[in-house]
Amino acid sequence: MSEFSPSNYNELMVNKTVINGLFEINLVVNGDNRGWFKENYQQAKLEALGLPHFESVQNNISYNVEVGVTRGLHAEPWDKFISVANGDVFGAWVDLRLGPGFGQVFTARIDPGKAIYVPRGVANGFQTLDPNVVYTYLVNDHWSPNAKYSLVNLFDPELAIDWPYKQNEAIISEKDANHPTLSSLKASLLEK
Question: How many helices (H) and strands (E) does the chain have?
Fold first, then answer.
């Protein structure tokens, strides 16, 4: 179990990553003997530091009871602002936009003092490192059953993601376990 310390987060920062348009954000977290408080998303401050303009229309929360719960990798047709309200996760992102960055991978740990901005077309996945993780994300379009997703297998060797809990230890849905490999996804995208 990880130990979150609010004192590690005292400066708001927006950092570029190896994936074009994907940003890692350090949030300011103020804590005392009662717990902690953070501004999870403050549009004006974040945009002033280089985050793209983002108008959220929906807030989603995923509650994950056990350590090793693994979800993804899904690239939805909307942008996301991801954070956790409780616990620690290992996050992984894969650029599924056709072009020079296709297949690029970025990973990071996310605790309550860290957030990630994910542009549409970049697949998102995570694995819980603590019990009772509350994973939350803002999106700038409403969910729709007709939305077109790009999906890629979490454990595809071509991605070489170093998940803390390997495939035989992960708690994963059958649907997520059966996503296509990066190579087969690329072939299907090129056919369109």
Answer: 3, 13
